[in-house]
Design goal:
Distance between the termini: 52 Å
Structural class: alpha/beta
Strand content: 5-15%
CATH architecture: 3-Layer(aba) Sandwich
CATH class: Alpha Beta
Radius of gyration: 23 Å
Shape: globular
Number of domains: 1
Length: about 425
């Protein structure tokens, strides 16, 4: 056998299984959403006390169960906790995915990484966040907007990983002013800024070609920042332009972050993370160990106020079908109460929420047992959940990205929840 013929036939044999597998796959699911507003509840939202209520427990007697009573929603047979009264009538526009799971040890940093990148932490690859993935695949909806914004404190788990700095995020921590890095110092007029940019271009023109990909990514990030600096884009952060009654409907600082996310969607930002990591009104946040659970209801009510206002506001602006709202958290909470009456961590079954985005919502998807401790129907892995987000945005959830020459599946082989696209 000639060497060329051997290479041709052996190469075809190696490709055959892949080709057959591709032919046997179901058609790619493609939604019509254009934007994502991802609400991050750091600390671990307890599904049994919010979107997957069960029979009432008793912390004093250490009887496992929900901390609050359950109420009916707009979807028959679907209940939520009593402190989600504003969201309950809107659950026909949402789906509580009650069967999300991962095997991460109950440690906040590792679980937060998993729920942002969809992967275990690796010593050889720095994986991109879901926000950077969407920014990489779709870019900004308008040229004058950043593709990806984080309203909250910066963190590597939100970052672009091997995709490069140009697919990172713009961030701010205070809705009373825009990102500090985009605000020109006093005295820098448009003319003076133009001279500075012309000087930068002159330096680049006379410099040696950039061969290091990391420097090229950094240069691209600088160019993006220059496009966004100045008063034109920064106007989006002026919430005083909004009617006072609307701002009041959204509530406090967390609600104002959600309102700002709607303005960023209108501007053309593709992916916004609204991080609930400010000074929590209940003093401890969603990580409700021991006595931290006593004021958990205040936090749930704050989420209820902001989320319901966001859904109705987007709907009134005819943006709800174009905007996928996502609520995620690093893990859930078990039905048992700890020594102080609070709850520990639970990653093997918890709830995340989808709303809007043009999906066929059903109020709830997946089912846990009588105490929301284990999944009994329709499990959804983190890659599956990410694939659902990608599909809703029209992103190919089966494609591969590349870290150098290394192929990396975009969602770690996840499959979307197909019932939401019927």
């Amino acid at each position: 056998m000639k060497r060329r013929h051997f290479l041709q036939t052996s190469g075809s044999a190696l490709l055959l299984p892949t080709t057959l597998a591709a032919a046997n796959q179901d058609p790619l699911i493609t939604g019509k959403a254009e934007h994502v507003i991802s609400i991050w509840l750091g600390g671990g939202m307890g599904q049994i006390d919010t979107f997957d209520p069960k029979r009432k427990g008793d912390p004093a007697k250490k009887t496992p169960g929900s901390y609050y009573d359950a109420i009916d929603t707009a979807v028959p047979g679907v209940q939520v906790c009593e402190h989600l009264r504003k969201l309950a009538p809107l659950m026909d526009r949402a789906t509580a995915v009650r069967s999300v799971h991962h095997e991460v040890i109950d440690e906040h940093a590792a679980a937060s990484n998993r729920m942002h990148t969809g992967r275990p932490i690796s010593g050889t690859v720095t994986y991109p966040s879901i926000g950077s993935l969407i920014a990489h695949e779709r870019g900004a909806a308008n040229e004058g907007a950043p593709p990806y914004v984080v309203i909250g404190y910066p963190n590597i788990t939100r970052g672009p990983g091997f995709l490069g700095a140009q697919h990172g995020y713009l961030y701010l921590t205070d809705t009373s002013r825009g990102p500090a890095g985009l605000s020109r110092p006093d005295g820098i007029t448009n003319e003076r800024q133009a001279r500075r940019e012309a000087f930068l271009q002159s330096l680049r023109k006379n410099a040696n070609p950039i061969e290091d990909s990391r420097l090229a990514s950094y240069e691209a990030a600088i160019d993006q920042s220059l496009k966004l600096s100045g008063p034109e884009f920064n106007r989006v952060f002026n919430l005083d332009e909004e009617p006072a009654d609307l701002r009041n409907r959204y509530g406090g600082e967390f609600g104002q972050r959600c309102l700002l996310s709607r303005r960023l969607v209108e501007r053309g930002t593709r992916f916004i993370e609204v991080s609930h990591n400010l000074n929590f009104i209940n003093g401890i946040g969603w990580d409700v160990h021991n006595e931290g659970i006593l004021k958990q209801h205040e936090l749930i009510q704050e989420l209820d106020t902001a989320m319901s206002a966001l859904i109705t506001d987007l709907e009134s602006c005819q943006l709800l079908d174009k905007t996928l709202i996502v609520i995620t958290t690093e893990f859930g909470r078990p039905p048992e109460f700890d020594g102080g009456g609070g709850r520990g961590h639970q990653g093997l079954g918890f709830s995340c929420v989808l709303a809007g985005g043009g999906l066929n919502h059903c109020g709830a998807w997946g089912q846990t047992d009588e105490l929301s401790k284990s999944i009994v129907r329709d499990p959804v892995s983190v890659p599956d959940f990410f694939a659902t987000i990608c599909a809703a945005l029209g992103v190919d959830y089966r494609k591969y990205l590349y870290d150098g020459d290394r192929p990396v599946p975009i969602t770690d082989q996840g499959d979307p929840i197909s019932a939401l696209f019927v």
